[in-house]
TrEMBL record:
PROSITE patterns: ABC_TM1. Belongs to the binding-protein-dependent transport system permease family. This is Peptide/nickel transport system permease protein. The chain crosses the membrane at residues 9-30, 95-119, 140-161, 173-196, 235-257, 285-307. Pfam families: BPD_transp_1, BPD_transp_1_N. It is found in: Cell membrane. Keywords: Cell membrane, Membrane, Transmembrane, Transmembrane helix, Transport. The keyword Repeat does not apply. PANTHER family: DIPEPTIDE TRANSPORT SYSTEM PERMEASE PROTEIN DPPB-RELATED. One of its GO terms (molecular function) is dipeptide transmembrane transporter activity. Its main location: membrane.
């Protein structure tokens, strides 16, 4: 078990190191002067020089890289030239929207997908299986922004049950804030639930044909115990893999949904920073998201050892 954890930690550290080199190189591959790219062709020489000094562009490449890594270790992502405030403060303002949204979407996706996948696997080849997997195929094929527009029309414009967009802030109360995140969470969760249900069904079908499942049924165990305790636990590894990837996607890939619902989250921040050519913000947010993705996948890898005891003793 110790060797397994050590190996996964080393892989995570190497991944973050390689990602930091790639993200840092983003400024280096920009054609021309990065300061001029960010400020535009009409920038004054004084403004260009001030930004070069701020970004340390007059320093050697390796010196700038290690200075940047050192700043990241103390959560110093630099200062946005557009907003003139630290990038760390911008991220702190936006993550309180994106993180709850991602958690809500992942919870909805899991609550929908796993029961549907088990239901469909148990009824393989029947009409219920065909209908549920057909609906899942539609969910995979239809983009989430289309679901978002449909939900806005039905629940915000027609029924007037929830706001069509915007975010009142957590200072307005927990319920108004959560209410503003319901439609975006559903729009994000439905396509992910479709993918996860198909993976769950496939994993369950592989497990339901095993000898120990037939033995459990032959001993007269209740159907729910066989499905939820024996079969599901042994089918969880591919499901956990998809869950980890989905959480990373939901946290980092919400640019379209946050723009549809006018949510001030990390996705919208990245979109605004790209349009404003604020590369310092883009660097900081992307590196943070890389670290979160690596951390989530590390936790998923460690959860494998909890689900599958063979990994605790295997070499």
């Amino acid at each position: 078990m110790t060797a397994y954890i050590t190996k996964r930690l080393l892989i995570a550290l190497v991944t973050i190191l390689v990602a930091s080199v790639i993200v840092f190189s983003m400024l280096e591959i920009v054609p021309g002067d990065p300061a001029r790219v960010m400020l535009g062709m009409n920038a004054t020489p004084e403004a260009l020089q001030a930004l070069r000094d701020q970004m340390g562009l007059d320093q050697p490449l390796l010196v700038r890289y290690f200075d940047w890594i050192g700043q990241l270790l103390v959560f110093d992502f630099g200062k946005s030239y557009t907003y003139n405030i630290p990038v760390r403060d911008l991220i702190a303002e936006r993550v309180v929207v994106s993180l709850p949204l991602a958690i809500m979407a992942l919870a909805l996706s899991t609550l929908i997908a796993i029961p549907v996948g088990i239901f469909s696997a148990e009824r393989r080849g029947r009409m219920a299986d065909t209908l549920s997997m057909g609906a899942a195929q539609i969910g995979v094929a239809v983009p989430n922004f289309w679901f978002a527009l449909l939900l806005v029309y039905v629940f915000a414009v027609w029924l007037r049950l929830v706001p069509a967009g915007g975010f009142p802030g957590w200072g307005a109360g927990a319920w108004p804030a959560l209410k503003a995140l319901i439609l975006p969470a559903i729009a994000l969760a439905l396509p992910q639930a479709a993918i996860l249900s198909r993976v769950t069904r496939s994993a369950m079908l592989d497990v339901l044909g095993e000898d120990y499942i037939r033995t459990a049924r032959a001993k007269g165990m209740p159907r729910n115990v066989v499905l939820w305790h024996h079969a599901l636990r042994n089918a969880l590894i591919p499901v956990l893999t998809i869950l980890g990837l989905q959480f990373a996607f939901l946290l980092a890939g919400t640019i379209i949904i946050e723009n549809v619902f006018y949510l001030p989250g990390l996705g919208r921040l990245v979109f605004q920073a790209i349009t404003q050519r604020d590369l310092i913000v883009v660097e900081g947010v992307v590196m943070l998201l890389v670290a979160v993705v690596v951390l989530v996948n590390l936790l998923v890898d460690l959860s494998y050892a909890v689900v599958d005891p063979r990994l605790r003793t295997s070499r």
